[in-house]
Amino acid sequence: MKGFLTAIGVLLVFGVGFSPFLANYLWDDPFLVMDASWFRPLIYTGFALIFLPGILEMLFGGGKVKNGVPGVGIVTSVQQTGTYVNNQPQVKLGLTVTKQGEDKYDTVLTTIIPLTSMAQFQPGAIIPLVVSEKDKMKVGLDLKGQLSQTDLQALMNEQMVKQGVLPELMENAETGEQAYAKVLDVTPLGEAGSNRIKLQFVLSVTKSNGDTFHTTVQKEIFASQLPKLQQGSIVEVIYSPQDPSKLVFKTQVSEAEIQQAFGASR
Fold it and tell me: Is 146 left (phi over 0), alpha (psi -120 to 50) or beta?
């Protein structure tokens, strides 16, 4: 719609602007047209159609993505455009975006950010997004809270599978039984890449009914999780009732882990 109005505006400006030259050619008097009652209103209307949609878009958010699918963005760059609206700066955010069913990709979002909120939009910051269903490159800030914790966890699971975590472990995390486990022994097995460590754990698991069982599992964990999984630690786990050896640790998702999962697309 904006492009259509701009095209009409350009045609008006050039068409009406050319009419004095035509009048001068036909009647040797350009003022026959320039003094006409319709000349100035049409010129002004043409300029308004060219510039007004962009101004209204900047002021009132026209054209920004307000509805779509939830996503997560990692801010990779922040650049002020030099434009201010009500003394609030317009900025161009470089983003690495993650949405369900897509590989991570880079895009740019130009938006108005209050000065008091600038600290929340620095490189490395994690922000919730709304991604257009028609064009994934068009994103907006999730001002309505469409990105729930469930959505975030689903996106995390998808990225973890892409990074090598077995899909059945992700399924187990969603459908298994919760319990507590004591770490009896930890054996390093080497680095697993992407800031992950491979370890072997010997665990004593206490079910919700009080029964206990021992199991040995090998896990790839983020380095930031290691302090929570030392020998003697008590940690929440989720295990499969059909196969208790299929077990995942239930640890709080940290900012570092989210950045690791949703980081650079390259």
Answer: alpha
Adjacent-strand bridge partners of 188 = 199
Residuewise pLDDT in 10s, the chain (266 residues): 555 656 676 776 667 777 777 767 777 777 766 777 777 777 777 667 666 555 545 444 433 666 788 888 888 899 888 887 778 888 889 998 888 777 788 999 888 888 777 887 888 787 888 888 888 888 888 866 666 656 666 666 665 555 544 445 555 556 678 888 999 999 988 876 666 788 899 999 998 888 888 999 888 877 777 888 889 999 888 888 887 777 878 765 455 555 655 665 55
Q: Which amino acid is at 211?
A: D
* Spatial separation of the C-alpha atoms in residues 165 and 261, rounded to whole Å: 12
C-alpha to C-alpha distance for 196 and 225, rounded to whole angstroms: 9
Q: Look at residues 104, 106, 54 and name the one whose alpha carbon lies nearest to residue 81.
A: 54
Distance CA 122, CA 112 (A): 14
On whether the CB atoms of residues 221 and 253 are closer than 8 A, the answer is no
Cβ contacts of 80 within 8 Å, gap of 6 or more = 89, 90, 91, 92
Q: Are 236 and 178 in contact (CB under 8 A)?
A: yes
Beta carbons of 53 and 2 less than 8 angstroms apart: yes
| 3-class secondary-structure state, position 195 | coil
In the three-class reduction of DSSP (H, G, I as helix; E, B as strand; rest coil), residue 6 is classed as helix
| Cα→Cα distances 58→85, 90, 120, Å | 8, 9, 21
Helix (H) or strand (E) holding 54, with range, is helix 39-60
